[in-house]
Amino acid sequence: MTYDFDLLVIGGGSGGVRCARIAATLGARVAIAEERHWGGTCVNVGCVPKKLMVQAGEYAAHAEDAHGFGWHGAHPTHDWGAFMAAKDAEIRRLNRLYLTLLEGAGVAPFFARARFLDPHTVQVGENRVTAERIVIATGGTPAWPEIDNARLGIVSDDAFHLEEPPRRVTIVGGGYIGVEFACIFRNLGAEVNLLYRQALPLRGFDQDLRECLADALASEGIRLHPRALPHRLEALPDSERRLHLSDGSHVDSQRVFFAIGRVPNTQALGLERAGVAVTETGRIAVTAEHVTTQAHIYAIGDVSNRTNLTPVAIAEGHRLAERLFGREPRDWSFDPIPTAVFSTPPIGTCGRTEEDAARHGPVDIYIARFTPMRHVLSGRHRRSMMKLVVDSSTERVLGAHMIGDDAPEMMQAIGVAMNAGATKRDFDRTIGIHPTSAEEWVTMRVRTRTAGEARLETALQTPKI
């Protein structure tokens, strides 16, 4: 059979665009369909605008901290409208850049919704398109809670288009989105309540990191509500909102922001017509090579049952295109994967948590806690914590975790070292850069504890030089 295209990519986010572009440069006839905006969640309602909002909020603290260094002057005021206009202009620039890259590579773009008609045929707007291979890269969308009047609240997509910042906001969800927006709005002057189901925020992260984050959030003036479950949302006079909780209590605020997770964009794709199966959570099940239940249909990025991070989706799309169209795939390491949470202060993490590593055998734990030099003079109560999880028998570094200024920037380099198989001895024999917070990574000599075995008393007293 002759097809219109060798490859059709459904979804113009970071992973889909990379896959389409690389495939086209390798000589394939490629089309891509996107119904909303080029660049997907990350560029438009995710990583990029969120980081700009984080940075916007940081400048107020910088101005306050300057007083400790001899700078004096009036406290600056924030122009939300000017900031949002600048943010939107940058997003439009990136939208154009993504489209320019696609067209420059020879990819045919379709600005329309796509849905399967059969395993090789897709309706894209008013066009019926056939393709030998199809990649689904439709990403995810914010989840809404199943409570009464939930739509009186907002989700993360809405937060990037508010006409004014909330004066008082209740955020439901202790994952990275909830934590980051709690810090963003707090730094912009809002009163913030943060509610989450567990005892600590950031489920799945290292326990020490979670405890330090909870202390840091409280120090920033964010009101924490652990083990809180929303029950229903009520509209009050003057556009106020009351969130009723399952224990009978309630929280009043101007906005209620639900950050309870994301769900895959698989609805209305017509996957059943293509014979593509999904998991119980709605994600597309794929093999290690991103193959779905149809051998010629693939899924990458957040729509699949793999790691949901933008750089991972980009790597998946790149490797898949190379594998499908004749080039030896570039070698990426997906274990460990460095990542960050842009909280206040930020978090950087790579590899296994202490809890996970200890289940597989004895591990040595090294922890440093300190006040960064900047805040000795600024007077701001902001502590940093660094932690290494080390295999007791091989001394290989299995996990690195940090909360503190510049943590994400440091963790990128730590990820390189860990992917290269660095040991604790490699860290110890590296000369530090002084005076920096980063030098603490190479000066943690005294073991804090050993996990995964019973001889803790001995381990606590045994330094490794």
Question: Can you put this structure into words, describing what you see?
Answer:
The chain has 465 residues and is an alpha/beta fold. It has three domains: 5-141 and 263-324, 3-Layer(bba) Sandwich (FAD/NAD(P)-binding domain), CATH 3.50.50.60; 150-260, FAD/NAD(P)-binding domain, CATH 3.50.50; 339-460, Enolase-like, domain 1. Helix content is 31%, strand content 24%. It has 14 helices and 22 strands. The chain has helices at 14-25, 40-45, 47-65, 80-105, 156-159, 176-187, 207-219, 271-274, 310-324, 354-358, 373-378, 407-419, 424-428, 456-460, and strands spanning 5-10, 30-33, 108-110, 114-118, 121-124, 127-136, 140-142, 168-172, 191-196, 223-226, 230-236, 240-245, 250-253, 255-258, 262-264, 297-299, 339-341, 347-351, 363-370, 384-391, 397-403, 449-451. The strands form five sheets. Strands 1, 2, 3, 4, 5, 6 and 16 form a seven-stranded mixed β-sheet that branches. Helix 1 runs parallel beside helix 9 and helix 3 (47-65) packs across helix 6. The radius of gyration is 24 Å and the shape is globular.
What features would you highlight for this structure?
14 helices; Enolase-like, domain 1; 3 domains; 465 residues; alpha/beta; FAD/NAD(P)-binding domain; 24% strand
Weakly predicted, low-confidence segments:
454-465
The CATH H-level homologous superfamily of the largest domain? FAD/NAD(P)-binding domain
Alpha-carbon distance between the two ends: 68 Å
Please give the domain count.
3
Task: Just give the CATH class of the largest domain.
Answer: Alpha Beta
Rg over C-alpha atoms, rounded to the nearest angstrom: 24 Å
Count every helix, treating DSSP H or I runs of 4 or more residues as helices: 14
Strand content: 15-25%
Shape: globular
**CATH T-level fold name of the largest domain:** FAD/NAD(P)-binding domain
User: What's the number of extended β-strand segments?
Assistant: 22
Mean pLDDT: 95
- Please give the CATH architecture of the largest domain: 3-Layer(bba) Sandwich
Structural class: alpha/beta
The largest sheet is: 7 strands, mixed
Fraction in helix: 25-40%
